[in-house]
Amino acid sequence: MAEHCCSSGTSGQTTGATTEPQPEAASAREVLFRISAMDCATEEGEIRHALSGVDGIRGLRFKLAERVLAIDAEAAALNSALAAIRRLGFNPEPISADHRPSAAQTRAERRRERLRLAGSLALAITAELLHLVIPAYPGHELVEIALAIAAIALAGFSVFRKGLAALRQGRLNINALMSVAVTGAFLIGRFPEAAMVMALYAVAEAIEARAVERARQAITSLMALAPDEAEIRQSDGRWQRVAASAVSIGDVARVRPGERLPLDGTVLSGESAINQAPITGESLPVDKGPGDAVFAGTINQGGALEIQVTAPASLSTLARIIQAVEEAQASRAPIQRFVDRFAARYTPAVFVVALAVALLAPPVLGFTPMQAIYKALVLLVIACPCALVIATPVTVVSGLATAARRGIIIKGGLYIEEARKIRALALDKTGTITLGKPKLVAFSPQQEGADADALKQWASSLAERSDHPVSRAVATGLDGERLAVEAFEALPGRGVRGVIAGRPLMLANHRWIEELGLCSSTLEASMQVHERQGRSLSLLADDSGVLALIAVADTVRPSSAAAMEALRALGVTPVMLTGDNAATASAIAALAGIEQVKSNLLPQEKLEAVADLQARYGFAAMAGDGINDAPALAQADIGFAMGAAGTHIAIEAADVVIMNDDLMRVPETIALSRRTFTILRQNIALALGIKALFLVLTVAGNATMWMAVFADMGTSLIVIANGLRLLRTPTLGKIKG
């Protein structure tokens, strides 16, 4: 039976975990254990809390979707850690790094679980019918006891085991409460009701676990996207299928039409349309040819491709996405931390009230001792914080899964909740608002009689050393032999400089040329012509003056204007921040529909601009390329990294990663956050409201134990179903508000 994930315990902060000799390690030091009863972040918290006092643990990594815990610890600490986990009532089983239960095993386990729970419920119903319908007969009590014991044994053995473990440690979790309640009902002679309570609890718990699993399956299904094998060219030219995990960087793989790509790589030969929806959420296939990057898990829809592997299977873009979302599931949103703290106090408080009812109700309210004890047992069932605790994780996981299917990787519950607060969005220009693929459109020598070919060689040699999009466009647009560059230096927000054949040269932007006093009125007039057309300028110069004017043109993303309109509809003010000149920035902003523009900014000035937006609007985000805009992204309350497909640094560093560069994903994230928070509040209100109702009914004498269990588990299923609604709202049009 899938164990319940509700608990009143708090989760300690442990940073550690490690290795054991038996199972195969997931990394150099980690050892993997499958804990079948570990369903959710609450039980993760129990395990973290139990291991917080174990010395020698270096790290813990939870993979809740697979119910796997990776421990990195010293050898001596590992046994202590496993013993602490077992004392909680969990059974950690060592597994290998590539362990995956087969579909047949999963079906068999679920079939056995259904039969066991059906048997328990049938026995409990039989005992209840015998008690209610058939008149007393000799030995009827013994029959009821036998049926009740059988039903409880089928449904509740693991509950009692974990409940006793919790009570021994002074923890009041759901298993402890149910163990006390069922035992108490049995002791006061309510045999059929004790059996019914345990059977209903077990059945509802299993349904709940399956419902929660549905939210996680949206993530775990990603794991099946990349094939386990790849067709690799051998040293003798033969093609052979090998395990994808055994393929090395630099190997050449062949992918036939209709197949999924097993690994990240660069196309060596062949042309095809690739369906990248599993990675980027794009609805249309993307044409790929020699030199283009391709990603594991995507689908080759056209011709055969040969690709050179650029990352091992464990570090592919898909693997990093899965890891990022798994870690996001394990993180707690602010509202979830509040709920956990509330539940940690709520359960003991109701337990104390139940004890007071059992002891004080007879003398104060005139109840018989049996009536008082029974009401106290009903209160114990109501004390279970299940619906309240489960209300947040399933909603957050559903939101994360919905975002991932749209090519939006949100790095934690904090950001899916906090994105709703965004009131201003700063956007970098190149690569964010524009496509980031500028092309050379003009090269104009500025000194009469200059050797244009030599100037082009100098400019292209400097540009080739830079990774800035404008420099790449210059290097690509200027053919010819490259020259050696000495003392090369890149100055962020200004340009690059170096020494070629003993001559100091620079490739500078408009700002730097003005700072150096090299901008003549004639040059200024020439630049304005290009800037009014939205072109970005680079100027080749030496100490004596500007040698050549180079203009490149970028294209505004097709989605930029629509994204700005969607942001304004959500009450978010878009602001462009760019290091480019004012004329170019204004031209691009006009095309994108952005009214506020700040140009000629250095990286530090972008950071200050974001801080100013935070002061003015209260909560400001930043969208950039994840690398060049690092200071501003770090300053922002939430950083959106664009251009991230295949950019491992962006996936690891950003708060939110937009996998397909589509700016519409930003307003979608904000709208999804607002929808998620609305459902979170609905779920918490439902859980607390139904608890309050049954507290009143219990005091009034109108609630029974099995009714309390039914209501509690029913509420859990309601909040789960409400949270799962997010899985059906994948586009902005469906998640407004």
Top keywords for this entry?
single chain; 737 residues; alpha+beta; 7-stranded mixed sheet; elongated
Quantity of strands, as a count: 26
Which class of secondary structure composition applies to the elements?
A: alpha+beta
Low-confidence stretches: 1-28
Strand neighbour order, sheet with most strands: 14-26-25-24-15-22-23
What is the percentage of strand-forming residues? Answer: 15-25%
**How many helices in DSSP terms?**
24
Mean pLDDT: 80
Please estimate the helix content: 40-55%
What's the multimeric state? single chain
- Main pleated-sheet profile: 7 strands, mixed
Morphology? elongated
Distance between the termini: 39 Å
Return Rg in Å: 32 Å
Question: Can you characterise this structure?
Answer:
The protein is an alpha+beta fold and 737 residues long. A 7-stranded mixed beta sheet has the order 14-26-25-24-15-22-23, sandwiched between helices. It has a 6-stranded antiparallel beta sheet with strand order 6-5-7-13-8-11, with no helix packed on it. Strand 18 (495-500) and strand 19 form a beta hairpin. Helix 4 crosses helix 6 (191-220), helix 6 (191-220) packs parallel to helix 11 and helix 10 (369-382) packs parallel to helix 24 (705-724). The longest helix has 36 residues, at 665-700. The radius of gyration is 32 Å and the shape is elongated. The model is unreliable at 1-28 (pLDDT under 50).
